[in-house]
């Protein structure tokens, strides 16, 4: 059971994101839809990785007192 279903007492709100994704999963996705989902997921993953790296670098610079300047 999804986390959304558990928090709402076992049901999922009609028209909500979880319900839409469950419907898409039950119906199956075409090859082109799968490619779009994979592309979007890859882009989101790349953005999260870039932000995490930038944040980590900034924290290290703050910790080291910006000695490179």
From TrEMBL:
It is a multi-pass membrane protein. InterPro entries: IFI6/IFI27-like, IFI6/IFI27-like_sf. Keywords: Membrane, Transmembrane, Transmembrane helix. It is found in: Membrane. Gene3D superfamilies: 6.10.110.10. Pfam families: Ifi-6-16. The chain crosses the membrane at residues 36-53. It comes from the Eukaryota. Belongs to the IFI6/IFI27 family. This is Glycine zipper domain-containing protein. The lineage of its organism: Eukaryota, Metazoa, Chordata, Craniata, Vertebrata.
């Amino acid at each position: 059971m999804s986390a959304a279903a558990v928090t709402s007492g076992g049901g999922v709100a009609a028209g909500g994101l979880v319900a839409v994704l469950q419907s898409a999963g039950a119906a199956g996705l075409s090859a082109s839809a799968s490619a779009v989902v994979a592309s979007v997921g890859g882009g989101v993953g790349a953005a999260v990785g870039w932000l995490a790296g930038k944040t980590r670098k900034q924290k290290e610079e703050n910790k080291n007192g910006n000695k490179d300047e």
